[in-house]
Specification:
One of its GO terms (cellular component) is cytosol. By secondary structure, this protein is of the alpha+beta class. It is built from 18 helices and 34 strands. It folds into six domains: about 55 residues, Arc Repressor Mutant, subunit A, CATH 1.10.10; about 70 residues, OB fold (Dihydrolipoamide Acetyltransferase, E2P) (Beta Barrel), CATH 2.40.50; about 60 residues, OB fold (Dihydrolipoamide Acetyltransferase, E2P); about 325 residues, no CATH class; about 55 residues, no CATH class; about 100 residues, Beta Barrel (OB fold (Dihydrolipoamide Acetyltransferase, E2P)), CATH 2.40.50.140. β1 and β2 form a beta hairpin. α5 runs antiparallel to α17. The protein is globular and about 75 Å long.
Length: about 775
């Protein structure tokens, strides 16, 4: 039995003083390794475990063998390069409450399977202070889970963070008319039963329509019945496809009656507690199809002799906190949603239309309350000072990005002509100065074009475009970034609670993986704990215009951490900023509403500020809104996949130009640049060679030929199968494999690893 490491907790595996106390011949027992993994789910990669127990050299090889044995024995599983106990719950999990114990304490099971055995039981704790959500039997909840040491009781305790909306009254399905004239609902999801619809509850649905139905209570005999609530149209329409994503990801999309009633009862804000800025010619610049406008901008030269060549930039943001107060029905619903969700032709808003598209939309020529920041920049683009103001404003003009850009480029129209010299040119002059500061700061500069789906009138795909990236876009983006920085700096200076937008530097493991990949291309990345975006930019600049430019941009992107919300500041790596908080979109992001409330409270700007109760819950709120953001991204991505799959379903056997977007042991993911959609090529269809996966080079290569395919390669493929409802496409490779960069060294290293894996005792190496 190995001895326990003294003087530290397993929860802090990187304590240098502790590692010095560990003897060179120390090797932890299996139980100690398993305990560490259970207690540190976020730091359970091989490198993390080795660091925790100060293992080096041969001891790391020993650890690798132990971890492999534990996986083969079914004790551990590996997910996203992290190890976990089989059947172990994640630290934040979705639970279904099924009953109570003898003391009346609620008991729950995980909503999704976490192993092959009996699901673990979770004892539900009431939130601290009794102010949190109060769940009951039958509820589905999001909870933080904590392992227990009591072998006779539940394996975990859980603290409820959120109660999910009950969804028993809304089911999606396909309306089918059978040969005998009866109606059935074919379920969209496999776990749903087939339903019968009586004629009086058809509600105009036709054969093949996607419908939303309300199931009736199941009868003792036969299939359960349902009535059609809404006809969503053809399965190939965007409205139907986005509704599938809304239901699949449990996105609340219907505002409860009390929320609508509360929004309709709200009265417009007055000048109380506000400065009158209605004469300042602030303008909104948004996409041409924008329905709400939550930010306005203005700029002017700084006339202060102490700041020659400087500018004053002003950003005004809709004052949502004036209408959405903490603890109200509006606030609870906004927190549940976390953010608005954007589909190609639909928005699921965070706030009702009365708030988002009316009272808080900075409409041209109408009085609107706003929270504004006035920022002074020196001639070299660095911010000297800033101040926040609660104001009443009146937008001087509603402009679209191309419209504003055209005016600057010498083609003004009837709206931009009169304000070209007084408003637009000063904005562009200010941007030119602020950009100097951005260039000096050197944020991460990835070149990854975004695609936009354009739809026909019937909701099906018309075409996919890559919108031109204009200086007008960059101007608004940089003004918003600077406003976000000012918000974080102000709240931090006031020692006031806030939620930061944080972005961690790439993990050491991701850095090393990227470094190994770059070496295959003859590129080097410096080592060191304090990575800078400029180091990545240097790599990107070296490959600009080269054949592997897209490949390197893609791999650098995948090496980055995911941004999230947190009350603890670690800075924003990608933007190269020490303090950053979301402030500029409170109509569509709850995080921004929190920051607004914080500024109002910290600066004494009137009612609607952050309360002490709300401040005490910021850690849980940050976890929730980070989760709703990821949920929205997944739903948006799924909708695009389904739309494009349905669009291409009639083009089986057609050839397409594609780019390899992912490489796995099982095969290749390819993306069609024209459509921005992904499909899969199984490795078994690549030909007669035996293909080996080289993780370092992100490639598959043939054992006999040494030729293969690599991430970002441009290839030609044939579409062979489409599953529109699943958003899945399968392709056949038409392009021959090629010699790979860094071929000889990469080839022999990967081949050696593969053969070593296949020759290990108990190894399950197989031909792919």
């Amino acid at each position: 039995m190995a001895r326990r490491i003294s003087g530290r907790s397993h929860g802090d595996p990187r304590t240098a003083d502790t590692r010095a106390k560990v003897k060179d011949d120390y090797r932890p027992s299996r139980d100690e390794i398993l305990r560490y993994i259970a207690e540190n789910p976020d730091r359970a990669g091989k490198r993390d475990i080795a660091k925790a127990f100060a293992l080096r050299g041969d001891d790391r090889i020993w650890l690798k063998d132990i971890l492999r044995d534990l996986q083969e024995e079914g004790v551990l599983t590996k997910e996203r390069k992290r190890l976990a106990r089989v059947g172990a719950l994640p630290h934040v999990a979705v639970l279904d409450i099924f009953g109570r114990d003898g003391d009346g304490i609620l008991l729950a099971h995980p909503a999704e399977s976490v192993g092959t055995g009996e699901p673990p039981v979770v004892s539900i704790r009431v939130s601290r202070g009794g102010n949190g959500p109060a769940p009951g039997i039958g509820d589905r909840v999001l909870a933080k889970t904590f392992p227990t040491d009591d072998p006779s009781g539940p394996a975990y305790t859980g603290r409820v963070m959120k109660i999910f909306e009950k969804r028993n009254d809304a089911v999606l399905g396909v309306f089918r008319v059978l040969k005998d004239g009866t109606f059935r609902i074919e379920p969209v999801e496999r776990r749903q039963p087939e339903l019968i619809v009586d004629k009086e509850f058809q509600n105009g649905a036709k054969n093949g329509d996607l419908v939303e139905v309300e199931p009736a209570r199941a009868s003792r005999y036969g299939l359960p019945r349902a009535k059609v609530l809404n006809v969503l149209g053809s399965l190939t329409s965007e409205k139907a496809v986005s509704m599938i994503a809304i239901h699949a990801h449990d996105i609340p999309h219907i505002f409860p009656a009390d929320v609508i009633a509360e929004s309709e009862a709200v009265k417009p804000a007055t000048l109380d507690h506000r400065e009158d800025w209605r004469d300042l010619p602030l303008v909104t610049i948004d996409p041409a199809d924008a329905k709400d406008h939550d930010d306005a901008v203005f700029a002017t030269p700084d006339l202060d002799e102490k700041n020659p060549g400087g500018v004053i930039a002003t950003v005004a943001i809709a004052d949502v906190a004036a209408y959405v107060r903490y603890g109200t029905a509006l606030d609870r619903e906004a927190l549940k949603r976390g953010n608005s969700v954007y589909f190609p032709d639909r928005v699921v808003p965070m706030l009702p239309e009365r708030i988002s598209n009316d009272l808080c939309s900075l409409r041209e020529g109408q009085d609107r309350p706003a929270l504004a920041v006035r920022m002074t920049f020196s001639a070299d683009g660095h911010k000297i000072r800033h101040s926040f103001h609660r104001v009443m404003m009146k937008s001087a003009a509603k402009l679209a990005y191309p419209q504003a850009q055209a005016a600057i480029d010498g083609v003004p129209d009837d709206k931009t002509g009169p304000i070209l010299d007084t408003v637009l040119k000063p904005l562009w002059d200010a941007y030119a100065i602020i950009k100097r500061g951005r260039d000096d700061r050197q944020p991460l500069e990835l070149d990854l074009p975004e695609r936009k789906i354009l739809l026909k009138d019937d909701g099906t795909v018309d075409r996919v475009i890559v919108p031109e990236r204009l200086d007008a876009h960059k101007l608004i983006e940089e003004f918003m970034i600077q406003a976000n920085v000012a918000a974080a700096e102000t709240l931090e200076a006031k020692k006031h609670a806030l939620v930061y937008r944080v972005h961690d530097a790439p993990s050491l493991a991701k850095q090393e993986s990227l470094r190994e990949f770059l070496q295959t291309l003859g590129l080097s990345l410096a080592r060191g704990a304090q990575m800078r975006p400029s180091q990545f930019n240097g790599i990107l600049e070296r490959v600009r215009g080269a054949d592997n430019e897209a490949l390197v941009n893609e791999v650098v992107l995948r090496s980055q951490s995911q941004a999230e919300y947190s009350p603890k500041n670690i800075g924003h790596f990608g933007l190269n900023l020490r303090r950053y908080a979301h402030f500029t979109s409170p109509i569509r992001r709850y995080a921004d509403l929190i920051v607004h409330r914080g500024l109002i409270a910290a600066l004494g700007l009137g009612p609607g500020g952050l309360t002490q109760d709300e401040a005490a819950r910021l850690e849980d709120v940050a976890v929730l809104i980070s989760g709703t953001e990821r949920r929205a991204m997944a739903a948006e991505r799924d909708t695009v996949d389904r739309l494009i799959s349905a669009y291409l379903a009639e083009r089986i056997d057609d050839r397409f130009d594609a780019r390899i977007s992912g490489v796995t042991k099982s095969g290749l993911f390819v993306q069609l640049p024209q459509y921005g959609a992904d499909g899969f090529i199984p490795v078994s269809t690549l030909g007669g060679d035996y293909y080996i996966y080289d993780e370092t080079a992100r490639s598959l290569f043939g054992e006999r030929s040494g030729k293969g395919y690599q991430l970002a390669d441009r290839v030609e493929v044939r579409l062979v199968e489409v599953a529109p409802m699943a958003g899945a496409m399968r392709f056949e490779m038409l392009t021959d494999p090629k010699p790979l960069p860094g071929s000889s060294r990469s080839f022999h290293k990967a081949k050696g690893r593969a053969r070593a894996s296949q020759s290990r005792p108990g190894s399950r190496g197989r031909r792919r």
